[in-house]
Automatic annotation (TrEMBL):
The keyword Transcription does not apply. This is MFS transporter. Keywords: Cell inner membrane, Cell membrane, Membrane, Transmembrane, Transmembrane helix, Transport. Residues 1-178, 196-383 form the Major facilitator superfamily (MFS) profile domain. Gene3D superfamilies: MFS general substrate transporter like domains (1.20.1250.20). It comes from Paenibacillus mendelii. SUPFAM superfamilies: MFS general substrate transporter. It is found in: Cell inner membrane. It is a multi-pass membrane protein. It holds the Pfam family MFS_1_like. The chain crosses the membrane at residues 7-26, 32-54, 155-175, 196-218, 230-250, 262-281, 287-311, 323-344, 350-369. Signal peptide: none annotated. It comes from the Bacteria.
Length: 383
């Protein structure tokens, strides 16, 4: 479990050093907010195909860590290519390959982790919280670093942190392997016919789409509001540091009120944050409401993975985790990033947050409605 905790600590450290700053990286290279949204939407589009396919392959190999290792090593190496290619066409072409590996690693790692933690009698949140801690530390340090020296080196830092992740993966405990006697198309068909799972995924997409938009466009919100951009890293760090105790709280709330109600509560908390950003233009308040972002994310991240695990049959755990990520972050990311860039261009960042408020309130209602209209396929699920 220490090795698994180390993996999450280092994995989310890699995310913290580049993901929150990609919009600023491309913006400072001269691309408009609409074009930045197009680039990030392409990343999300690629993930829709990459994540389920890599998940299904992962479920069929003898050693599930193999695909995770390949993705962890390939993504940062491809990321260095952004320093070489010029023009939008080159950026988009490279993005196809970069996003394929970068987007697949996270959900595959979650599938392996939740299998190990359930086997050893631990909650998934007890190891996932180490990722929240490292993300907070990484975002805080890199925010100050990039604010002073610029955002041009984010992919070099990503490569350095990913190298440490690859070393830890060599010592990661083995997950149980169940070979599927079914074709890849048959395996995908099983997923699509799992209606309770698909309803949960579509409900989650509205909420996670708003979280994706906020993560990618909060830096541009800072820029438009005239805030000191050196505080961007602190904003992400504030959200991440509160996640650490909230993962512990989420595990207990889940048993007390049920997982669907906890997901609904997370949607409401997100909505309050976005309504505040729409209503007020104050750096102190903007930083303060990042606490709400961290609380909501911890409730979702610590709960959704276990809900999806409850829907998964043996030999399909990585498949369902990657399908969930592909739809919520992939499809949601495509629509959200494209929409976010255009809204900022035409109406400004505050209007974007008003729309995110509406999305989250809708998701909150859907989670409550869905709770009473579906039952999972696994008896281990707690609704």
């Amino acid at each position: 479990m220490k090795t698994l905790a180390s993996y999450y600590f280092l994995w989310y450290l890699t995310i913290s050093v580049f993901m929150p700053y990609t919009s600023l990286y491309f913006s400072e290279r001269g691309f408009s907010p609409t074009t930045v949204g197009l680039i990030l939407s392409l990343w999300a589009l690629v993930s829709i195909v990459a994540q389920p396919l890599m998940g299904m392959i992962n479920d069929r190999v003898h050693n599930p860590r193999t695909i995770l290792m390949i993705c962890t090593a390939a993504a940062p190496l491809l990321g260095l290519g952004f320093y070489v290619v010029e023009g939008l066409a080159g950026i988009l072409a490279l993005s196809l390959f970069f996003a394929w590996f970068q987007s697949s690693a996270g959900p595959i790692g979650d599938a392996i982790a939740v299998e190990i933690t359930s086997r050893e009698g631990y909650s998934f949140g007890s190891v996932r919280l180490w990722g929240a801690l490292s993300y907070a530390l990484g975002a805080f340090v890199t925010g100050m670093l990039y604010g002073k020296f610029g955002y041009n080196d984010i992919f070099f830092y990503y490569l350095a942190a990913s190298t440490a992740v690859c070393l830890v993966l060599m010592f990661l405990p083995a997950a149980r392997v169940t070979r599927r006697r079914i074709t890849l198309f048959g395996q995908m068909g099983e997923v699509v016919r799992n209606k309770p799972f698909m309803i949960f995924v579509l409900s989650s997409m509205l909420m996670m789409m708003s979280a994706n938009i906020n993560m990618n466009f909060l830096p541009l919100y800072f820029k438009e509001m005239g805030f000191d951009k050196s505080w961007i890293g602190s904003a992400f760090a504030i959200a991440a540091i509160i996640e650490v105790p909230m993962f512990w709280v989420a595990a207990r709330l889940s048993r007390r009120i049920g997982r669907y109600r906890l997901m609904s509560l997370a949607s409401v908390i997100y909505a309050i944050q976005y309504l505040t950003l729409f209503t007020f233009s104050d750096i102190t308040l903007t930083l303060a409401v990042q606490l709400l972002n961290g609380i909501a994310f911890a409730f979702v991240a610590g709960t959704a993975v276990e809900v999806v695990q409850g829907f998964a049959a043996e030999g399909a755990k990585a498949t369902l985790q990657t399908v969930y990520a592909a739809v919520t972050w992939g499809v949601g990311g495509i629509a959200g990033n494209a929409m976010g860039g255009m809204i900022i261009d035409h109406w400004g960042a505050p209007v974007l947050y008003l729309i995110l408020f509406g999305l989250c309130m809708t998701a909150s209602v859907l989670f409550i409605v869905n709770k009473y209209h579906q039952q999972p396929v696994s008896p281990s699920y707690m609704g």
